[in-house]
């Protein structure tokens, strides 16, 4: 069968350049990849362009499985209070700055203090770093949002039951994720686990000023 459409899903892992053994096409792409400081978004966009040059149509997983898209508003029985809402707003401010330079998609904020930001290590490692950083009182908030200029067909921010479990272990009181620009995996289980942990999960609107 002739393949015409491609869906890219799964974790993006950067190998060491010493482990890369490119074919002839990969060798042609290396100058573009090495031409500057490239984040995951830039490299994935390059991969999409190469696939399109071969005649493939790259489509987003949420165009195939539309129920994965994050809706706006709280998903379970717990809602962010005024303190958590201010932490979400602070996290959005920081997250937009990170995304603009293609760094990461996640931020943890508690009482206005940034406890951690995601870089190449991923959200799980970010939460592990924050394990001993949450102070007394209300826990921190994890925010995940799409990077500025990111191709929406690949590597959208994703939250699932594992994220809820690790966030709870790290003392996080709730998760905010950008509505209509992110994915929820195993939504029913995610909401159930968050309710059992006493955590909120909410889709938030992110205002973007793209120049």
As a whole number of angstroms, the C-alpha radius of gyration is 18 Å
- CATH class wording of the largest domain: Alpha Beta
> Main beta sheet, described?
6 strands, mixed
What's the CATH topology name of the largest domain? Cytidine Deaminase, domain 2
What's the mean pLDDT score? 84
- Overall number of structural domains: 2
- Give the termini separation: 43 Å
Helix content: 25-40%
Task: Give unreliable regions as ranges.
Answer: none
SSE order: EHHEHEHEEHEEHEEHE
Instruction: Kindly state the number of beta strands.
Output: 10
Under CATH, the homologous superfamily of the largest domain reads LpxI C-terminal catalytic domain
Strand order of the biggest β-sheet = 3-10-8-6-4-5
- SS-derived structural category: alpha/beta
Continuous helix count: 7
What key phrases describe this protein's structure?
Rossmann fold, globular, 211 residues, 6-stranded mixed beta sheet, 10 strands, two-stranded parallel ribbon, alpha/beta
